[in-house]
Amino acid sequence: xxxxxxxxxxxxxxxxxxxxxxxxxxxxxxxxxxxxxxxxxxxxxxxxxxxxxxxxxxxxxxxxxxxxxxxxxxxxxxxxxxxxxxxxxxxxxxxxxxxxxxxxxxxxxxxxxxxxxxxxxxxxxxxxxxxxxxxxxxxxxxxxxxxxxxxxxxxxxxxxxxxxxxxxxxxxxxxxxxxxxxxxxxxxxxxxxxxxxxxxxxxxxxxxxxxxxxxxxxxxxxxxxxxxxxxxxxxxxxxxxxxxxxxxxxxxxxxxxxxxxxxxxxxxxxxxxxxxxxxxxxxxxxxxxxxxxxxxxxxxxxxxxxxxxxxxxxxxxxxxxxxxxxxxxxxxxxxxxxxxxxxxxxxxxxxxxxxxxxxxxxxxxxxxxxxxxxxxxxxxxxxxxxxxxxxxxxxxxxxxxxxxxxxxxxxxxxxxxxxxxxxxxxxxxxxxxxxxxxxxxxxxxxxxxxxxxxxxxxxxxxxxxxxxxxxxxxxxxxxxxxxxxxxxxxxxxxxxxxxxxxxxxxxxxxxxxxxxxxxxxxxxxx
Length: 526
Ligand code: F6P
Fold this sequence. Notes:
The chain is of the alpha/beta class. It is built from 19 helices and eleven strands. 47% of the residues lie in helices and 11% in strands. β6, α11 (250-256) and β7 form a beta-alpha-beta unit. α1 (15-28) packs antiparallel against α4 and α12 (280-307) crosses α17 (461-482). The chain is globular. The structure holds 6-O-phosphono-beta-D-fructofuranose. Residues 159-162, 212-214, 217, 220, 270-271, 356, 489, 492 line the site of 6-O-phosphono-beta-D-fructofuranose (F6P).
């Protein structure tokens, strides 16, 4: 199937965009959620949505049925459905790199290869065969590591998507960790991180996983070389047993001296790679069954996104809400508030997912855009955030939509904690919306501060998979409306090139040709 972006108008050239602008002026800018609840007894049910493993309450947002209807018009006029179909069918919608965007295939059950409704079933079948062969091999290896009592520590060396995904998921699913292994994650080129990790490890009981899609990333290669040198210095010899590589560039891993490798494909974007061999640390932690549940949860969300009508499609509703807030209300950020301490790396994971995907200033043809794209994402687990920056969320001059995540079931048995945690997340969402009038000024809460509430029954491999897939697809939706390529990341290149130029100057002291500030700072670092 082919998808042509030019067959659809740019979002700001659609009738729906103009209608949304008028709607914002007439009703959106003065919209008061409290009044909306008073006027509509059904508001909670019409603005909430069940999706696989995730219930979402959107009713505390500055939207109503009229807003959603116009946003859906926008989605139709921008060709969202065709774009979504193109992703699932394996069209090369990552046009600047001429690649398919096919992470959904990584969680598609093998059996569906033959009955896919997609337009390219043979291609899907071929790729899916490779996916499942690698998955089976990777899970068998995970089982082997899990049963190898001599290995006590597993160190994942990777950065960006080759770190944030597995790290976030391993922490989130700690309650399901049954391997008895200690998992460590080293990403930063700052040697303090690797040195601190290596302290206390022994070569004979450590497995290093070198996770890099490209196997060229400078941070990862530097850490991998240092780990290899440390291993040899500790008397380690059996590299095949103590090093494995997770990469699309198996040849480079072999050249590096690693023979145990698990591959993936260039149609897996770095920030979408958790479902591939990059998920090996998670598979080691929770086992093959848990990892397959994780994939199944994501697949259930994929099917929801692929088949549910747009008005009852949670990723679509969230992505359109993001557009409404960014382009019409002008909100510049979103705060991520997971009320579960195991989701401590979830905000960081979402930062890469959304900001690396949609932090773009040109359309798919490279033409500058006159409207805003990715918001900044930031956050900390609740209740910690409440005692840090929630002051600003409640009483600051900027409106920051908040996205809460709460989990009904606790997996500890300490009395009192979980009801207190749940009371706090409910209270924060309530306080943001209701506010409080206080004539004295300092104690006045304006209220009408929007939030979305995502609710899981339990934090399990399946529900985490669904939650992350939900986030991937909502980023797809806003990026699709904005007409950008959400799947490249050219913005990370310039800094890499300049670092290569600067590094030798730190030894030579040569500041020729540098700007005044960089030259001045470099002088201080000599
Ligand atoms: O930050 C740029 C980036 O390419 C990310 O997209 C990616 O997740 C990260 O670097 C790591 O890349 P690799 O897995 O190739 O080492």
